[in-house]
Amino acid sequence: MIYFALNPDGLLCNLGDHGDFQAADATASDLKIDAIWLLDEFEAQNWASFIQEQIKETRKALAVL
Length: 65
What we know:
By secondary structure, this protein is α+β, with helices and mostly antiparallel strands. The chain has helices spanning about 20-30, 40-65; strands at about 1-5, 10-15, 35-40.
């Protein structure tokens, strides 16, 4: 499963394919990434879908004004 790390500055880093969160966390540590949040590919897809939908809805609402 692919894992990602969110930095305090908002940067999302791809940690690559790992067997579990602990392995992904170890990679983040090895890469000196100060991860405030680790997420797997399914959570990342959920975030991406939510963000895209919110942007779409907001633009739609603004177009009505």
